[in-house]
């Protein structure tokens, strides 16, 4: 991103041969493939971002960290918030929480992104805060914080840029009325740009 002039980002994800997945699929040979990749060789920092949800993924994460923490600087990120909507519409559509709000309150909210008022946007973001699966995510993040502390590595909490906890809002829509998530956790292109700007403004990506 043009905002982060200090960093050059290279992604090693599902499109790469031997992709790292912290679950049943992560085997030693995949970590070997990763270490032999140009991305690994060129990297100064390995930033881990995944969805962790069980003891298998935690154990694989610790194994990964133990193998690489003396070779590269490792930084862990927390799980993202998870947002779910009423089951009323679930059997008919693959709706995001944002879609559900528009359908639920369609008589009072314009259905075109650009026509959403600042008050509509605020109401949507308040609704996202109220409907995040807080207990499950916090339980997982508590475990991730423990793993980071145990291995003496830095952890960055995604909730710091996903929400404004004092105001009790979590961003489900951008300031210009564009959808941020295309499912319960993953960002749209507009959402990624929006959070990228938030990350820059908050100084969240401090890796040193």
Describe the 3D structure.
- The protein is mainly alpha-helical and about 210 residues long.
- The chain has one domain (about 30-200): 3-Layer(aba) Sandwich (Rossmann fold), CATH 3.40.50.
- Helices cover about 40% and strands about 10% of the residues.
- It has helices at about 30-35, 40, 55-70, 95-105, 120-130, 135-150, 160, 190-200; strands at about 45-50, 75, 155, 165, 170.
- A 3-stranded parallel β-sheet has the order 1-2-3, with helices on one face. A two-stranded antiparallel sheet has the order 4-5.
- Strand 1, helix 3 and strand 2 form a beta-alpha-beta unit.
- The longest helix has 17 residues, at about 135-150.
- It is globular and about 55 Å long.
- About 20% of the residues are buried.
């Amino acid at each position: 991103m043009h905002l982060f002039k200090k960093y050059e980002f290279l992604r090693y994800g599902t499109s790469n041969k031997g992709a790292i997945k912290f679950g049943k699929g992560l085997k030693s040979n995949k970590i070997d493939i990763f270490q032999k990749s140009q991305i690994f060789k060129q990297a100064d920092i390995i930033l881990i971002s995944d969805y962790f949800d069980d003891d298998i993924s935690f154990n694989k994460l610790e194994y990964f960290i133990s193998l690489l923490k003396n070779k590269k600087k490792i930084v862990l990120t927390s799980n993202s918030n998870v947002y779910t909507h009423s089951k009323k519409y679930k059997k008919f559509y693959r709706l995001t929480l944002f879609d559900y709000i528009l359908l639920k309150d369609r008589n009072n909210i314009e259905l075109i992104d650009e026509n959403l008022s600042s008050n509509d946007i605020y109401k949507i973001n308040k609704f996202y805060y109220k409907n995040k699966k807080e207990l499950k995510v916090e339980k997982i993040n508590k475990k991730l914080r423990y793993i980071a502390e145990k291995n003496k590595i830095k952890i960055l909490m995604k909730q710091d840029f996903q929400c404004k906890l004092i105001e009790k809002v979590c961003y489900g829509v951008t300031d210009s009325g564009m959808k941020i998530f295309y499912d319960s956790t993953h960002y749209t292109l507009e959402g990624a740009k929006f959070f990228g700007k938030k990350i820059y403004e908050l100084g969240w990506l401090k890796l040193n």
